[in-house]
Specification:
The protein is mainly alpha-helical. The chain has helices spanning 3-12, 20-26, 29-70, 76-83, 90-107, 113-136, 139-171, 176-237.
């Protein structure tokens, strides 16, 4: 095709043809499925990021408030009663679980300090594990999106390039107006794959680190509280 004819074909294409909506509407059904899937993954990724960011911030504030009260010298019994009936989280949940086992054991007439300490340690470990699992819930989705979204976008890219070659074969020319739609579809799928993957990877690393720090903080509190209960167990057992 002569150069002036190619120019006329290109200029004849409406400017709206290069919009994202037009690219999506003209895309092959496979590319449309890829784009819709990546958009859903991106939206859900940001929903998880916002939810976890707010949740971790709230948990840290609750831990700060609880630890200030705990180390203020207030009676453990009074603190336990004030938390009874609520839904404690993080260090407060660890405290309530250990105190519940403590009270049950002495109400049942437990006299073995080793057995009581073992049970309390197990309760602390189970509670920390449960709280950590709750904090890390849905983070696996971020890791999955971060690792798979680029490949899904690449699949859409390959399909778009195939569409371009098919258009070239059908029209028997390589004019830009013929190959541009398929290439644009391919680039759109690639861009959406990266748009979903990059925030997911960054957020997963950040949120995983935050969850790990909260878990370490709970473990440190559990060790200190276990030592306090161990001293009280020794005092009660040695009482005449």
């Amino acid at each position: 095709m002569p150069d002036d004819a190619v120019t006329q074909v290109i200029l004849a294409v409406p400017s709206g043809e290069i919009s994202l909506v037009s690219l999506f509407m003209q895309a092959h059904i496979v590319v449309k499925i890829v784009i819709i899937g990546l958009l859903i993954a991106s939206v859900w990724t940001w929903a998880i990021i916002v939810d976890k960011t707010l949740t971790y911030s709230r948990v840290r504030r609750q831990m700060d408030r609880f630890e200030r009260v705990f180390w203020s010298g207030q009676s453990l019994e009074d603190l336990y009663r004030s938390l009874t009936g609520r839904t404690p989280t993080a260090t407060a949940s660890v405290f309530v679980a250990a105190m519940r086992e403590w009270k049950r054991s002495f109400e049942a007439g437990a006299r073995s300090p080793i057995g009581l300490q073992t049970r309390i340690d197990k309760v602390l470990d189970v509670t920390i594990g449960r709280e950590t699992e709750r904090l890390e819930r849905r983070l696996l989705f971020l890791a999955t999106v971060g690792s798979s979204a680029p490949f899904v976008g690449l699949f859409g890219t390959v399909w778009g390039i195939m569409t371009s070659f098919q258009a070239i074969a059908a029209s028997k020319n390589t004019a830009l107006a013929v190959v541009a739609p398929g290439i644009a579809e391919a680039l759109l799928a690639t861009a959406l794959g990266l748009l979903a993957a990059i925030p997911a990877v960054v957020a997963y690393n950040k949120l995983s680190s935050d969850a790990g720090k909260i878990g370490q903080r709970m473990e440190s509190f559990a060790d200190e509280f276990s030592a306090i209960l161990s001293r009280q167990v020794d005092e009660r057992v040695t009482e005449p």
